[in-house]
Amino acid sequence: MHIVYKICFLDRKKNSIYPYQYIGSKSNCSFDNGLIIDKKGNMYFGSSTWDNYDSIVNDNIGKISIKVLWQSDDCDYNELIQMECELQNDNDCVAAYTYFNKALATISNYSDPDYATYKHTKTGKVVRLKTDHPMVECGEYRGITYGSTYTDDRKKHLSKINTGSNNKFYGKAHSKKTKSTIGNKNRGRIKTKKELENISKTFKGVPKTEEHKEKIGKHQRNKSVIKNSITGECLKIYTRDRELYSRAIWKSPYALADRMSKCLVCGYEGSEISIKRWHNDRCGSNSFYNPWSDKKFKSQEFFLYFEELICYINKTITDSISMKRYNKEYLVPFITNLGFEYNKSIQTKVNEINKANRNGLINDQSIESFRRWKEVYENQKH
User: Fold this and answer.
1) Which terminus has fewer CB within 10 Å in the chain: N or C?
2) Strand 21-26 vs strand 250-251: parallel, antiparallel, or unpaired?
3) Tens-digit pLDDT profile for residues 347-357
4) Element holding 176 (H helix, E strand)
5) Is-above-0.85 flag for pTM?
């Protein structure tokens, strides 16, 4: 909201202390409970150049009346200044001794919120430029205070004059409307890369207290994440509120991720989670990853055995999704001296082979043992 306001110092008016009122304008603010709140959430009491104006404001906190003379939600800066000038003229506030105003409002880059004061990094030249000026964005011009630091005495002084009852907002609280306005202005705003770097630099390496950890844990307990299967939007909700969201649309992100995909190396088709975990750059068929490279037998013999085993299983077991996962990269010989019980099913054998793969154990005896089991199994079947 953009407003033109009139501020009056009630005690000064009552005691006939002049001047006691001021007409000005403020952009990007809200007006709540008789107070002007700027976009940073701070109270605003005008920007008069009158000597000791800030001291007058501090001495009269709680005894100030503010009236909005004009307001708009969609005007630009030039329109706002023009309206401020008209209202100042109507009240003849420059000539009237009751007003703090020393001049009429004019349009200049010193009052335009799109401009700021910058200093050239090499020459030290100080100028007013637009905040989105190319030389500002590339870092050739920086804020005039960039690189400077406060002394310890200065920090203590600032802390003293803004702590406790010295703070202008001491004892006050924002209304729900003001909190909502501040929240809406910041919600959804994407932070720049520089802002994210500054935030990371500020908190990196700072240990959290036990109290802080407890607060984080308490805030996260009994919550779960759900994802919209249509829009992809994710929400973190309390578990007790789960029934408020349609299960046909809002699902677990893990459930949505469990879709069919294909390995780029071996061609195996399975769930996306399985492919990401065991395949592509991690696939056993990938030349980058060979779990048998440190074994004592020839890889050619091993893969010939693989082909024999795969052909055998394909003829024996129906082609189902659950069996597709026992593909070439999973089927490996049994571990040393495992042996075979001939009454076991093919499914059990495949499970044992998969387990052997994870253990990374293999030798010629295992291969020969499997071939004997295969021969007996075929004879029993016939």
Assistant:
1) C
2) unpaired
3) 555 566 556 55
4) helix 176-186
5) no
